Amino acid sequence: MLLEEVSHAQQTAREVLDRPNGMNRYGLVLNQLGLEPLITMLQQEYLMPLMASLYRTESDGCEDHHCFIVRYKAGEDVGLDMHEDDSDITLNACLGKEFTGATLTFCGLVTDEKHRKMQYTYAHEKGRAVIHLGRHRHGADDIESGERINFILWSTSEKYRASEAYKLHRLRSSAADPPDPICLSYTHDRDYTKYRPKLSKAEALSRGVMLEAVERRLDMYQRPVLDLSRPIEEINSVPSVCLFLEGLPPYRQHQLFQNLMEMAKEVHASVDTAEGQVPPIIFFVALQPSGAVPQVRALGGVTSSPALVILDVDGEKKYRFNSEDFDTAVMQSFVTSFREGKLQAEPISSEAPEPAKQTQPPEAQSLSSGTPGSQSPAEARGSGCTLL
Known about the structure:
Elements: H1 2-13, E1 27-29, H2 36-54, H3 56-59, E2 62-73, E3 80-83, E4 89-96, E5 99-101, E6 104-109, E7 120-122, E8 129-133, E9 136-140, E10 143-157, H4 158-161, H5 164-169, H6 192-195, H7 201-206, H8 211-222, E11 226-227, E12 240-244, H9 250-270, E13 282-286, H10 293-300, E14 307-312, E15 317-321, H11 328-339, E16 346-347, H12 377-385
GO molecular function, one term: metal ion binding
Domain Fe2OG dioxygenase: 63-157
Protein name: Fe2OG dioxygenase domain-containing protein
């Protein structure tokens, strides 16, 4: 009966129905059919005991939900790119119809070092369901024939999302091991094309790739300098040069920003970066003390303005530039020394100030002590080290 209602709604009111989510193009949101009370009853009376038994922390206080239907068939969505759900707990039930292929591959939890290693492939059967954490990386493998329709219920808990556990569960792990190709996400993984061929636009759309997000990320990679108040996720995994200019007169900000821009262009021109890949070093500027800027300052252990620091968040190291000369050549010498391994790192958790020192300092460089941050790496990550 549910399939009949869904089919009728799609035939008569498709123009006013929302897409199921940001990835699937075919399907609908069941709340728009007036089924919200029924789904709430299903969640509270039948699913809650099961969710509490399996995932006590994540299910505590689960009261909200987003419920929808997705459809896979040739010529439409044939599969779904690797992703995590915007839910705390997901129920995925197969309603039919007849199909082959269209399995569901699970990799690791996003907090795990092996979150890009394959764990299990689940074969859908009509009338059966799988329940999993929203943060469990998974993707729908391509359908081979027929049509698969699934009922998806995302459950969320405001209580859990306000907890420290939720903050820890949303930290992204940077895996050192090469990923299993099947666990790569074209939408989310900056190194996808390092291991798999680039998708055509048609292929990407048929697998639910969020092309706007991909294009936005690629555009960011082409920019010499990025806004530190809204850093891209790669600040957590790629060495990042951060120039702090908050509170300076506009003319001085403009002058130093231009120096940083000139240096960034020269550095990026000197490195070999494959198409679609993030450069091996990223440049950021902070003009206002907003967004992530205070958090990054704390990580870098700098309080003055202007200030320059190189952060290696993944390695929990920082390299502070303490010269008062912010000329392009002087800053570039500092960055070059970092790339050549000639700077002495400070741990992000450092309590006693020890400035970044060169074992073979260039003539133009002058370094002095500064004030480090007081947070441990774990505390820093919880307060903004892993920013996205």
